[in-house]
């Protein structure tokens, strides 16, 4: 029975039928004892006896413990069953009382429903009438509420009042009582639109105030595309000022004397002190020019793009109206793209014009630093509107500037080569002074010219290394290093200069 309880297979340990296996089912103590007495010595038999006595005592102790624990569990289970019988009996009694109470409540509720059946309809009508009167009272007080909100500059509350009642007023505007309210509200809302547009066009308004104005105007069913145009129109004023400053600096750099005749009346009208005006009219170098344009125009156009996207592209308010969200976002993005392309084209034109003035400068370091700063800041605009490929246009300007510098150096090398040839001709053609020996060895003259040309080429290549310096941003782009090093420097400058020397040498040989 114990084997059945613990799930022990009765065939385990006895399949071989060995009578000497003490753990097997076919164990025979007489055979086991005879075998042990034959095989083991006396001291081993004594040890075996001690071990078996110890195991018997351990088994007896385990058996007693097991019996005691099972007995305690049996007693505890008996007590639990007795308590369960008592608890279930109480629960049945409580369930019976609950069913009786539920029946009583149902009967009482049915009696109340029968009693109040007639009055219920009257109460419902009175409640509906009361709600309608409250709505009518709100409608009659709506013009005064809207005026009060406008006086307190609580434009958001005024828009909520109007949008809440707009449908009712438009539906019943044919009725005389509602027609006058509708007309009064229309006039007040038109005034509200005007104030919101004034705040919307105010340059001192913060981004949060602009967002609130746009949201309120959209709730008043103002055309979103018209609001986009107005925002871009107001934003273009500041950008136009930045472009005018850039153009003025270009004119000042090209002809500083044209800015010397500044009358005192002009200073008063411009509200600028003479010292500030003198400092303002000082020509700036290319690095200061790029710094000024980046901190002015590029920073402002980045701010315009970010504000425009927050106001018109990433807003759920566009879901109201005649068009869906996707269509309005597409229109807003299209208008922004056209605006940015036009303004950036003007900016690139000014920058190209100013960079062209630097093509004949001696040192490249300041020019390269200016181009690097320009390209870094242009990446900010590109990250905001990647689909416009603005960075590619900036790369074209950098490439053109580098090519202009190489052309300038190429002209300088050709000019230096011509000067070397002229010096050699003068030495060869100079009349000899009697009694004075002069060195007119052609190999020495050629060596001197070769050393001079080599030094000039090394100097030019050393100056052009600034364009591919490690700390220059555009030197790590895919478009610049290859074309600049191979096409412009190697082919146009070095190989082109060699071809020029060969051509000059060939022509000189033919003429001679």
TrEMBL record:
GO cellular component: cytosol; EARP complex; GARP complex; membrane
Main localization (coarse): Golgi
Keyword Transport included in the entry's annotation: yes
Signal peptide: none
Gene Ontology biological process terms, A to Z: endocytic recycling; Golgi organization; Golgi vesicle transport; lipid transport; lysosomal transport; protein transport; retrograde transport, endosome to Golgi
Location in the cell: Golgi apparatus, trans-Golgi network
Keywords: Coiled coil, Golgi apparatus, Lipid transport, Protein transport, Transport
Domain spans labelled Exocyst complex component EXOC2/Sec5 N-terminal: 22-310
Pfam families with a match to the protein in the record: Sec5
InterPro entries: Cullin_repeat-like_dom_sf (IPR016159), DBL_dom_sf (IPR035899), EXOC2/Sec5_N_dom (IPR039481), Vps51 (IPR014812)
Similarity comment: Belongs to the VPS51 family.
Functional note: Acts as component of the GARP complex that is involved in retrograde transport from early and late endosomes to the trans-Golgi network (TGN).
Quaternary context: Component of the Golgi-associated retrograde protein (GARP) complex.
Classification via PANTHER family: VACUOLAR PROTEIN SORTING-ASSOCIATED PROTEIN 51 HOMOLOG
Protein name: Vacuolar protein sorting-associated protein 51 homolog
Lineage per the UniProt record: Eukaryota, Metazoa, Echinodermata, Eleutherozoa, Echinozoa
């Amino acid at each position: 029975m114990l084997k059945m309880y613990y799930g022990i297979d009765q065939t385990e340990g006895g399949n071989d039928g060995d009578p000497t296996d003490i753990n097997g089912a076919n164990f025979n103590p007489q055979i086991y004892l005879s075998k042990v007495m034959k095989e083991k010595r006396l001291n081993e038999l004594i040890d075996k006896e001690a071990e078996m006595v110890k195991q018997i005592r351990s088994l007896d102790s385990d058996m007693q413990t097991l019996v005691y624990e099972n007995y305690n569990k049996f007693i505890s289970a008996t007590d639990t069953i007795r308590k369960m019988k008592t608890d279930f009996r109480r629960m049945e009694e409580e369930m019976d009382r609950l069913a009786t109470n539920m029946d009583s409540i149902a009967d009482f509720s049915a009696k109340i429903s029968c009693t109040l059946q007639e009055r219920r309809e009257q109460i419902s009508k009175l409640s509906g009438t009361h709600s309608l009167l409250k709505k009518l009272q709100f409608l009659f007080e709506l013009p005064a509420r809207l005026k009060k909100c406008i006086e307190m500059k609580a434009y958001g509350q005024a828009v909520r009042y109007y949008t809440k009642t707009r449908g009712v007023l438009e539906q019943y505007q044919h009725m005389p009582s509602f027609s006058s309210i509708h007309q009064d509200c229309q006039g007040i809302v038109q005034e509200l639109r005007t104030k919101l547009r004034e705040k919307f066009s105010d340059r001192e308004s913060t981004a949060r105030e602009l967002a609130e104005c746009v949201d309120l105007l959209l709730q008043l069913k103002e055309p979103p595309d018209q609001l986009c145009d107005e925002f871009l129109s107001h934003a273009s004023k500041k950008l136009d000022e930045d472009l005018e400053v850039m153009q003025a600096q270009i004119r000042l750099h090209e002809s500083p004397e044209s800015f010397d005749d500044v009358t005192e009346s002009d200073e008063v009208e411009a509200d600028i002190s003479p010292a500030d005006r003198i400092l303002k009219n000082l020509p700036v170098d290319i690095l200061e020019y790029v710094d000024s344009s980046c901190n002015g125009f590029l920073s402002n156009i980045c701010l315009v793009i970010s504000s425009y996207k927050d106001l018109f592209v990433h807003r759920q308010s566009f879901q109201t109206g005649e068009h869906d969200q996707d269509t309005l976002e597409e229109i807003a993005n299209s208008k922004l793209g056209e605006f940015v392309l036009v303004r950036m084209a003007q900016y690139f034109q000014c920058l190209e014009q100013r960079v062209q003035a630097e093509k004949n400068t001696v040192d490249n370091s300041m020019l390269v630093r200016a181009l690097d700063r320009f390209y870094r800041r242009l990446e900010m605009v590109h990250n905001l509107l990647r689909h416009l490929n603005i960075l590619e246009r900036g790369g074209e300007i950098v490439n053109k500037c580098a090519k202009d510098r190489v052309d300038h150096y190429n002209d300088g090398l050709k000019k230096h080569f011509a000067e070397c040839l002229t010096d050699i001709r003068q030495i060869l053609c100079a009349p000899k002074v009697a009694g004075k020996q002069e060195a007119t060895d052609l190999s020495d003259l050629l060596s001197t010219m070769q050393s001079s040309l080599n030094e000039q080429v090394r100097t030019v290549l050393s100056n052009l290394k600034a364009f591919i310096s490690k700390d220059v941003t555009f030197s790590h782009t895919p478009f610049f290093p290859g074309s600049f090093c191979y096409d412009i420097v190697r082919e146009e400058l070095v190989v082109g200069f060699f071809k020029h020397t060969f051509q000059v040498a060939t022509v000189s040989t033919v003429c001679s």
